[in-house]
Each structure stands twice: as C-alpha cells, then as structure tokens.
Design brief:
The protein has 149 residues and is mainly α. The protein has one domain. The protein has eight helices and no strands. α3 crosses α6 and α6 packs antiparallel against α7. The longest helix is centred in the N-terminal third of the chain and has 32 residues.
C-alpha cells in the first residue's frame, strides 16, 4: 500500500507544473469566451438584424453553433482547435456537436441506419440522460420550495 502511494506521489509531483496549468486555464477560458462571443453575435444577428423574437433567435443561434461545429469536425479542424482550446471547446454546445459528428463519422462504413443512425448520439447520449435527470431533480427541488414556502 505504501509503495503504491509513494509511486503515485512521484507521478503527481512531476505533473504539478503550475505554469502549464495556468497556460491551459487561460487558453480554455479564452476559447470558451470566444465561442460565447460568436454565439452572442449570431443571436444579435438573428434578433436585431433579422427581427426574430428572442426565443427563436436563441434557437437559431444554437442551431448555427451546432452546424458550424459539425462542419469543423467533419473537416478535422475542430479536433485541432480542441487540442489548443481544451475544455473551452469541449464544454459548450459545440462539444456536443463534435461528439455527435465524430460518432457518425466513425461508424459511417456500417451504413446509414446501423452505422450513422445508431451511433450518432452514442457519446452524447449520457449527456442527454444526465442533463434530463439533473433538470428533473432541480425542478423538483424548486417546486418543493415553492410549495413549502
């Protein structure tokens, strides 16, 4: 047990390069912020220039971001950007699009139905399930607080 702990401590001590950690944090923050700015530009374009109501403009903005991330993934650019931007590109809705398109591309040789159709949401399925369950839990807690208070 002690031998394993010592070995683990040696591994962890080598990985504690705070300059690299700070650089990765700043890159993720910058790329995530850039994705947010692009999303806001799409929203403003739809809402202000095309005079779409804010609910529909939000939907169109999300669809635009997913479409662009899918196209970038199909051309292999999103993965290269993801190596630089780290979680800044993996966390937003664009990361969901990347996971879906990657799964579809990986299984395209198996056909449209059993390949692409069955595997498109393979990686993102857990995100959908966990997001739905957590939304249900939060909504239930909020409902209980509103009823009790």
């Amino acid at each position: 047990m002690e031998k394993t702990r010592k070995y683990y401590q040696e591994l962890v001590s080598v990985k504690k390069d705070y300059k690299v950690m700070l650089k990765n944090f700043l890159l993720a923050f910058g790329f995530g912020g850039a994705v947010s700015i692009v999303g806001q530009l799409f929203f403003d374009f739809y809402h202000n220039l095309l005079k779409v109501n804010s609910t529909d403009a939000s939907l169109y903005m999300t669809l635009s971001m997913v479409f662009i991330a899918g196209i970038l993934t199909a051309f292999g650019l999103y993965d290269k950007l993801g190596q630089i931007g780290k979680c800044g590109l993996a966390i937003p809705i664009t990361g969901f699009a990347n996971a879906s398109v990657c799964s579809a591309m990986e299984y395209h040789k198996e056909g449209i139905v059993l390949g692409i159709g069955a595997n498109t949401l393979k990686l993102a399925g857990s995100v959908i399930v966990l997001g739905t369950v957590s939304a249900l839990i939060v909504a239930s807690i909020r409902y209980l607080f509103e009823v009790l208070l």
